[in-house]
Amino acid sequence: MLFWRVGRGSRQSLHQLVRSLADLLSPSSLRSPHICPSLPATWLRSFALTHPRLQSAPLPRHRESPAEPGSPSLKPARLTKCRHVVAPIPDPLSEPPTSANGSSLPQKDFINISGNRASRRIFSDSRKVSRLAQHMIFTRYPRGALLVLVTAHRLGCPLGKEVYESVARRLAEAREWRLISALALLQKRHLGRHTARLLDWRIRALIEVSQFAHLDRVLGWFEEGGLLPTRRTYHLLLYGHLRNRNIVKAMNVIRQMLEAGFNVDSRTHATVVSAYRTLGPDVGVQIRALDALKDADARTSTHILNALLQFSIDSRDSERLLSLARHFDFGKFDACQLPLGGFRPLPREGESAVLSRLIRSSCQSHTIGRIPPDIATYTILLHYIASHGDLPSALGLLEQMERSNLVPDDRFIAALVRLYFIVGRPNAAIGVVLATCADVHGSQAVFQDVRLPPEPQGTLPLPRVLPKPTIEILNALAVGMSRLHGIDGLQACLRLMQLCQVNPDNYTKALLESCLVNTEGLSSADVSHISKRFSPNEHSLSHLVQSLASRLHYQFRAVKRSGWNNTPSRKHSLRTRSLSLQAQTSTTSKSFDPTAGVIGILLQPTSHIQPIVQSLTDRGVLADRRMFALRIRHEAVTKDDMTGAKGVFQLMLDRGLHPNEYHYAAMMEGHAAAGEMEAAEAVMNSAERGGVRPNCVLHTILIVGYARQKNPAGAMRVLRHMVAAGVRPDVPAIDAVTSVFFASGAYQLARQTLLSLWPSVAPLPRDLDRASLKVLVFHLRNLHKGRVIPKKLSEHERKVLVGKLEELSSKVWSFRGSRSGTQQGGTMYTKGHGTLRRELSQSHLS
């Protein structure tokens, strides 16, 4: 850090003062210097040694990669990050400072820290006070920045509004959102009033900690201080309500902005399209945002295109992604190098076709002066390349970023770490992380126990400037290590967090819980008790979704059947639940948010979930798309109530939330469980027309449905369509196809099918070519644990697999003999001359 001059010996005095502040004032509950003193790393090893290993921990859903905020203005690429929710922010003056042992420290002792001559010179100059406070933010005790301002004010140093605003900007860079609201209270107490700029920072902080209920009071704060809201203020409010999936309040903000004399411009469209990802990829919103490019400056254009890039990745629309990438000036890196994946093109109808034409025409208009990408652009594309496991393209993108003189942030480094794990180079991933921890003593020895030494940094293509280790980087490492080495790998990452003095977040907590439950065999109650002591008491909607999903999983599993177990299932106890409980889950009930009524249908005790629900309710957090997916799946699969599932689906649409593959999968599961295969296939067609590319999961649901009907011809038809679409069959899909023949009694054909499809996921071991069907299925399912397989088929792989399916299909028809033909009506995939054509039917969701 570049220090300022304060006279002879002042630099040394500043270091001494910072050390004295950090050492004297121990971190409070806001930020602990250690990960958890009550949970040593050796404690985790005991679970690895004393509990049986069951299966690899599932990978928690990767969080999105927003860009670094440098001001209250919004950057669209940062919109998708699952923010960590915290408790209400205390008054910084109501809590006395504490000493290292946690006891209360007299206020006069804190003031006496500045009793020497050098310190008096610092506390007599507001510029030096501002720099000292900003430096404290990046120590292990960021709350000390506020106490520096308190001390300076009590010593009579005049602090102008620019001091508070500069500290707020640094707090945002450090993502210390809680302290920004406390800083706003300090400013009003010291100066007697707020400033519009700091109030804007406070709005941003409220959004980041999901305090959406306070957004309704924001304009009143401006009125109380005699201030006029700016365009930025309205954009922040618009962004916040869209982040909370509240379309009604977002429209009210636009109306208030127009009444205040601010028209809707390109920056407004950038705000909307950036925040709209929480609701889904609305084509109309994308069209209006893209149309606003002609009047936007370079920075706003970059933000708009970043959001559109992310939308295309979410819908796995590689063609649109490539068209949008051509708008950017990537220098020597050719956007055509981006992997396309081999999927067949999505259908373009209505607004989707208009958007595609607008993207092409817009690209032609930017041919001469292309738009400069920012670090968020490179991060988005690196995540996309990593999902395809394309290391050469990733290295080319990294070289271009270096030539652009952009400084990588922690999210870019986290994406690079994820890439190395996907391509099978965990040593390189560790090497990247340890390069960011170069100044951390003992970091090199952390991974000795797992016998995974890092690759030498001289052989790794690393950016010239690296960020300090953050929880984003270390979480990316923890995900990969937990998949490779289970609890031992996670233990090493926790040790590294301790050494780096980086506190875990809810994502780390979820990963730990997943390892303890799925890998170590602990019960959910034990894990819940342990995790309370492990992680800060942060209540987020993401954590609640994970908790509810794990509890509903047992109910789903109780009613789920496949071709391997094709006996009628017993009636589930939920179907005889009392009417009062069903009323609690009504879509019109006041308790519908934030859990979409899911909390009322749990069979297990929910005492430890209730505080999270209450916290989210108090902050005005609404149910998101993930919560709606849980509720729809419960109605469709567990309760076998498709009418109720469609009602929840329609309510989600009425709120402006766009369905994704999880919502369509839930509806398809319900129809397939009821034997309504025509309706299930119609739902998948509706998904494709809505811009959601049918993936392996959706096809597997259909295959399982046909397995329950003992219909191998229908299952093979779906499999053929999946391969023709370029989707690689995974282990569950092959398992499901094999179960169709097992359920039909064709055991030899089931074994032959399994052996034919096995090479699409892994080479077939030589010692298994004569094994029984039971042994083959056992080893096949073991392949699914922790193995990363490309999702798309190459052209050669697709041709080989199509040939095998042709041979298997001929045997299926001979096996059927006098069996009834394929179901007539509805959506059918029929065999043509080397291709598969689709017969469209009416949507069953309309």
From TrEMBL:
Residues 57-77, 88-107, 565-589, 823-846 are annotated as: Disordered. Gene3D superfamilies: Tetratricopeptide repeat domain. Residues 836-846 have a biased composition (Basic and acidic residues). Residues 641-745 form the PROP1-like PPR domain. It comes from the Eukaryota. Residues 96-106 have a biased composition (Polar residues). Pfam families: PPR, PPR_long. Keywords: Repeat. Residues 576-589 have a biased composition (Low complexity). PPR repeats lie at residues 230-264, 374-408, 660-694, 695-729. NCBIfam families: PPR (TIGR00756). Belongs to the CCM1 family. Binds to mitochondrial small subunit 15S rRNA. Regulates mitochondrial small subunit maturation by controlling 15S rRNA 5'-end processing. Localizes to the 5' precursor of the 15S rRNA in a position that is subsequently occupied by mS47 in the mature yeast mtSSU. Uses structure and sequence-specific RNA recognition, binding to a single-stranded region of the precursor and specifically recognizing bases -6 to -1. The exchange of Ccm1 for mS47 is coupled to the irreversible removal of precursor rRNA that is accompanied by conformational changes of the mitoribosomal proteins uS5m and mS26. This is PROP1-like PPR domain-containing protein.
